[in-house]
Write a structure and sequence with these properties.
By secondary structure, this protein is α/β, with parallel strands linked by helices. The protein is built from ten helices and eleven strands. The structure holds NADPH dihydro-nicotinamide-adenine-dinucleotide phosphate.
Length: 295
C-alpha cells in the first residue's frame, strides 16, 4: 500500500511570511511608512476573537501596522458603515477586514459593499469577485488563494487537470472554482444537491473540499494519485471523554492511501489563510503606493 504525502501548509505559510517580510522592508524604504491592516470585530464571539488576535500578532510580526476596532454586538448598521467610511479614508490603512459572521441585525452584504474595493483584502466585494471572474487583477479571497498556492507547489502546471470543488460558498467554493478555471483546469462545482457525489469526486485529479461536514468525503471516493485540499474545520468529540478535536471534511486516515498528497487538518489550509491575508494587504498597499506588487 502506498501512502500519500501530507502537505505542510504550516511550513509553506511560514515561508510565505518570510518572503513578505523582505517585501515589506522594501515597501517601508520606498514609502517611509508601514502597510496597515485594520480588522473590525463586532461582538464577543470567542472563536472570532481568537482569529482577530492571531491576525493582529502576525501582522505586526511581518512588519506591518495592525489596527484593531472592537465594537459591541449592539452597534447599529449606520455606526458600522460610518466606521468603514473612516477606514476607507484613512491613509494609514491599506486593508480592511470585517470579521464575519456579524450579529444577525447587521446586513453583511451591505457592510462588504461599503469597503473600498482597493482595500478589500478579504476579496469579498463584488468588484473583486467580478474582476476575478473576468480574469482581471483582483484582491482574491484568502483561503482559496492559499489552496491554489499549495496546489501549484505540489503539481506545478494545473492545465487540463480535472478539478472538483465540493462547496459553492462565496468565500471558498466559488472563488476556488474561478481560480482553478484560470489555471485551465476542467472544473466541476459540487454542492448539497449534487447527485452521486462519490462518482463526481472520483473523476478528479484535484479535490477541494469546502463543506463543513466532518470527514464526509470518504477515502474510496478519491481517484488514486489525486491531490486533495481539505478546507473544512469541524469540531467533533475526541476519543478522550469531555475533549474535542478539529477534523476536516475528508476522512484523511482512509484517503491517505489513495492520494498523491493531502492537506492535514489542522496544519494544512488554515495557516495559509492568514499568510495570504497579509500578502493581500501588501498587494493593496503596493497598488495604492504605485509600486510593483509581489507575485
Ligand atoms: P458554507 O456553509 O458557506 O458552504 C458549505 C457548502 O457545502 C455549500 O455550498 C453546501 O451546499 C455544501 N454542502 C453542504 N452539505 C453538503 C453535502 N452533503 N454534499 C455536498 N455539498 C454539501 O461553508 P464555507 O464555504 O464558509 O466553509 C466550508 C468549510 O470550510 C467549513 O468547515 C469552514 O469552517 C471551513 N473554512 C475554513 C477556512 C480556513 O481558513 N481553513 C476558511 C473558511 C472556511 P449548498 O450551497 O447546496 O447548501
Amino acid at each position: 500500500m502506498t501512502i500519500g504525502k501530507l502537505i505542510d501548509g504550516k511550513g509553506f505559510a511560514a515561508g510565505l511570511r518570510v518572503q513578505l517580510t523582505d517585501h515589506i522592508i522594501d515597501f517601508v524604504a520606498k514609502t517611509g511608512r508601514k502597510p496597515g491592516l485594520a480588522v473590525v470585530l463586532v461582538g464577543e464571539d470567542p472563536a472570532s476573537a481568537v482569529y482577530v488576535r492571531s491576525k493582529g500578532k502576525m501582522t505586526v510580526e511581518v512588519g506591518m501596522e495592525s489596527f484593531e476596532f472592537r465594537r459591541p454586538a449592539s452597534i447599529s448598521q449606520d455606526e458600522l458603515l460610518e466606521l468603514i467610511e473612516e477606514l476607507n479614508g484613512d491613509p494609514r490603512v491599506d486593508g480592511i477586514l470585517v470579521q464575519l459572521p456579524l450579529p444577525k441585525h447587521l446586513d453583511e452584504q451591505a457592510v462588504i459593499a461599503a469597503i473600498d474595493p482597493a482595500k478589500d483584502v478579504d476579496g469579498f466585494h463584488v468588484i473583486n469577485s467580478g474582476r476575478l471572474a473576468v480574469g482581471l487583477p483582483a484582491l482574491v479571497p484568502c483561503t482559496p488563494l492559499g489552496c491554489l498556492m499549495l496546489l501549484k507547489d505540489e503539481l506545478g502546471d494545473l492545465s487540463g487537470l480535472e478539478a472538483v470543488v465540493v462547496g459553492r460558498s462565496n468565500i471558498v467554493g466559488k472563488p476556488m472554482a474561478q481560480l482553478l478555471l484560470g489555471e485551465s483546469c476542467t472544473v466541476t462545482i459540487a454542492h448539497s444537491r449534487t447527485r452521486d457525489l462519490a462518482s463526481v469526486v472520483h473523476r478528479a485529479d484535484i479535490v477541494v473540499a469546502a463543506v463543513g461536514r466532518p470527514e464526509m468525503i470518504k477515502g474510496e471516493w478519491i481517484k488514486p494519485g489525486a491531490v486533495v485540499i481539505d478546507v473544512g474545520i469541524n469540531r467533533v468529540a475526541a476519543e478522550e471523554e469531555g475533549k474535542t478535536k478539529i477534523v476536516g471534511d475528508v476522512a484523511t486516515a482512509e484517503a491517505i492511501s489513495h492520494v498523491r498528497a493531502i492537506t492535514p487538518v489542522p496544519g494544512g489550509v488554515g495557516p495559509m489563510t492568514i499568510a495570504v491575508l497579509l500578502r493581500n494587504t501588501l498587494v493593496a498597499a503596493c497598488v495604492r503606493a504605485g509600486l510593483k506588487a509581489p507575485e
